[in-house]
Amino acid sequence: MLNDFAEQRKQLREQLRARESKDLYRRRLTLESPQQTHVLMAGREYLAFCSNDYLGLANHPQLIEAVCEGARQYGVGAGASHLITGHSSVHHALEEALAHFTGFPRTLLFSTGYMANAGVITALLDRRDTIFADKLNHASLNDAALISRARFVRYSHLDLASLERQLAVCQTRRKLVMTDAVFSMDGDIAPVTQLLALCEKYDAWLMLDDAHGFGVLGSKGRGTVSHFDTSSPRIIYMATLGKAAGVFGAFIAAQPEVIETLIQHARSYVYTTATPPLLSHTLLKSLVLIEEEEWRRERLTQLVACLKREVQSLRWRLLPSITPIQPLIIGENDKALEISEALRAQGILVPAIRPPTVPQGAARLRISLSASHTMDDVAELGSALREMDRSAVAPAY
């Protein structure tokens, strides 16, 4: 038995070495400062284009004060699950505020977006049902579909004709179309209006994962549903609270019967400790900032336009995106890593994203913009990339 265990450990080491040889090995960065556009690592300051803190709220002084105030009022930990004694009045207040903000009848808080997606899909669907998923959906949606044991059908990215063909022949009890609202690695936006029309035609639910649209898109940052000015009782809406909102957590917005079903059956809600109430207290302040400070979204629009100008002469191309997610396609894994590391040597952090997160041959720099960036920050990045292009750091893609 000892020899068998030693062999298993050896196999793990070999798998890790193989991953490293393909330039797919991931290593963590360790920040020594708050999350902001200029961060500290190993005593050195870097200009960072890595964060999903799109509105620049993660280190906002009003949110820091709200955390302290929330801790004094509610303590540190929730101490129990929501269905025992962990559901605080401030959790409830945040759910009501989120429902009002998004325009849905009710919302339900979850600890993470991953847990929210898992909770919804496994509570509402099983082997009698069918899930239709865009091939570029986030891993949390795919994992949830597999756990649910529903029939899992994937359609090519944004290929609505293929989706309609699949929906037209489906005869299962329930049908759910699920998609990223803003795709996390490409930055493009799902055609919500057309997807909803298909769901209405073929009697399906529509689940939108708006992790990267909430706070950024739509009127007052209300998200992708607002961006398309649409609504329907068929929509199940998920958004995270640790990206544009700057804090932590996630929520589902939907019809009352859906929310009640989740409270009763969503295992990732029922069987976990509630998030600290102080976070909900802080998120109430975050919602106010999101709604009132329109300049943050205006700044993002200006920064996106500035970045496009800065990189237009490069051999590498930006994917079309109006969101703060601006992917610069490099192609080969090793070259994407090489450029990312060269930027880091100059004090600029931009992550290299490689398969399996993105398709083979589509390794990229994922440039994430924040309302806290300045035009000079973007110009510095553009200048560094142009210099690398002239130096032929990587071949043309």
Please give a structural write-up:
The chain is 44% helix and 16% strand. By secondary structure, it is an alpha/beta fold. The protein has two domains: 29-55 and 294-390, Aspartate Aminotransferase, domain 1; 61-292, 3-Layer(aba) Sandwich (Aspartate Aminotransferase, domain 2), CATH 3.40.640.10. A hairpin with a 6-residue loop joins strand 10 and strand 11. Helix 4 runs parallel beside helix 12, helix 5 packs parallel to helix 6 (139-148) and helix 13 (295-311) packs parallel to helix 15. Residues 393-397 have low confidence and may be disordered.
Kindly provide the radius of gyration, computed on alpha-carbon positions and rounded to a whole number of angstroms. 22 Å
How many structural domains does the protein architecture include? 2
Name of the CATH superfamily of the largest domain:
Type I PLP-dependent aspartate aminotransferase-like (Major domain)
Structural class: alpha/beta
Number of helical segments with 4 or more residues: 15
Strand content: 15-25%
The level 1 CATH classification of the largest domain is: Alpha Beta
| Helix fraction by DSSP (H/I, runs of at least 4) | 40-55%
Major beta sheet summary: 7 strands, mixed
The general outline is globular
Order of helices and strands: HEEHHHEHEHEHEHEHEEHHHHEEHEEEH
- Biggest sheet strand line-up: 3-9-8-7-6-4-5
Q: Got a strand count? A: 14
Outline the low-pLDDT stretches. 393-397
Question: Cα distance, first to last residue?
Answer: 50 Å
CATH architecture title of the largest domain: 3-Layer(aba) Sandwich
Average pLDDT number: 95
What is the name of the CATH topology of the largest domain?
Aspartate Aminotransferase, domain 2
